[in-house]
Amino acid sequence: MAYWEPIRELDEAHLVQPASKLREVTHEIARITENRAPRGWWICFLLASAFAGIFVLCVSYLFWRGVGVWGNTSPVYWAWDITNFVWWVGIGHAGTLISAILFIFRQRWRTAINRFAEAMTIFAVICALIFPSIHVGRPWLMFYVFPIPNQMTLWPNFKSPLLWDVFAVSTYFTVSLLFWYTGLIPDLATLRDRSINPWRQKIYGFFALGWRGSNRHWQNYERAYLILAGISTPLVLSVHSVVSMDFATSVIPGWHTTIFPPYFVAGAIFSGFAMVETVLLIARTVFKLHRVVLMRHLELMNKFLLLTSLLVGYAYGMEFFIAWYSGDEYEMAHFLHNRPMGPYWWAWAWMMSCNVLVPQIYWFKKMRTNLAVMFVVSILVNIGMWFERFVIIVLSLNRDFLPSAWGLFRPTIIDVGTFTGTIGVFFTLFLLFMRWLPMVSMTEVKGTMPQADPHRHAEDEGEHDPVKIPDQERLPAAAAGALVPEGAE
């Protein structure tokens, strides 16, 4: 057996359809941007655009009438707006995890899904930033949260975790955007060279930054990609930890706990992987990407979902244990009575069912490899993670220390329209990305193929053993794959 072949005893499998050629991989991915969009894309795009239109109408009405059109009431001053913000930020976490951390650990199976995840991060954070901007009531004064000298001599409170949010999320967005764009450059050059239309050549050529595929370009590219991966890795842990401090630094029962940072990070990765799987399954079906997105990739993602489901379930259990063990009557009343038996018990039941119970079917390989099951579970996980944020925020606020201050939150049609509208905005942006940019990294997928190995022919023919090449003379794996003629086997 050749040394590049997967070892069956270790449950390894091919990461690209066996016997695929380099040119077939290039054509499989590039044809999506070169040919007419299929009917399935148009159906999804029109549906997403309709919901995006609902979002525009709801936000316009909100600006016209004010935040009173939402269901926020005393004492639930934070409701769907902050729930949606935390949910969208969490969804954006899986992109950096798949792209940066798995890249650093050299997990080659990430190559078929990392571009999806990176794009999802960008669009999810855009949707997340909408809610802090519109929930303040006076969005034209949002610049006050930044340390900008002004005539009012106002200055941000750097001790507030709400300001930490501004810097954490904006930093995360900037680094994620650079990381995504850096990985796109070689593929943009491929689209430029394949383009017949002069306008496409100019547009793709402009964003390809003069890429020629030289050894120097590949060295600079891999160095920059590794540096950005290193910068992004701590952001995976820090961003949602900072978001959790919006709640953990308060004294509200249900919020005042030290478990929130790791709890929020695990939940963010959980929901992010579920959303990646949702869009991946849609794209795989609509654009017929069966050559590069294999069942192996989907099964490994399902194993990640199972792992993070167990972590989230453990966090849920520890919340109840800490409330009981602390002896604090307010914490015990919140966790042991208000959540499972209070007026919003149904939200807690949805959270537990979707996040803890449903993913357990992935213990069975038959379920992990069933496409219909995957799609339903990924949708249910994201529903459950939204309810988790709703439970944390609304259930903690609606009953605080004084019974005289208790109150119920009821969403309005504007609440519902704004939230579903951001889902439309997200999928509209994502569908445009899938239509005009390579949704799978051609260069990285080629780097996992046998043709990318410079010693493949010599060993296959049995002429001599592979020759060791000094590190300073070795081309990066992706460069080797890209520089081999596409017709070569």
Description:
It is a single chain. The protein is mainly alpha-helical and 489 residues long. The chain has one domain. The protein is built from 18 helices and no strands. Mean pLDDT is 83; it is low at 458-489.
The arrangement of helices and strands along the chain is HHHHHHHHHHHHHHHHHH
Overall form: globular
Indicate the proportion of strand residues: under 5%
In percent, how helical is the residue content? 55-70%
Please count the beta strands (DSSP E, at least 2 residues each). 0
Let me know the average pLDDT: 83
Please work out how many helical segments DSSP would assign.
Answer: 18
Q: Report the uncertain regions.
A: 458-489
Class by SSE composition: mainly alpha
- Overall tally of structural domains: 1
Largest sheet: none
The Cα radius of gyration reads 24 Å
Report how far apart the termini are.
Answer: 17 Å
What are the key terms here?
489 residues; mainly alpha; 18 helices; 66% helix; globular; disordered C terminus
Quick synopsis:
The chain has helices at residues 22-34, 39-65, 80-91, 93-104, 114-134, 161-194, 198-207, 215-248, 260-286, 295-326, 329-341, 345-357, 365-368, 371-397, 413-436, 442-447, 456-460, 477-483. It is mainly alpha-helical and 489 residues long.
Layout of helices and strands:
Blueprint: H1 22-34, H2 39-65, H3 80-91, H4 93-104, H5 114-134, H6 161-194, H7 198-207, H8 215-248, H9 260-286, H10 295-326, H11 329-341, H12 345-357, H13 365-368, H14 371-397, H15 413-436, H16 442-447, H17 456-460, H18 477-483
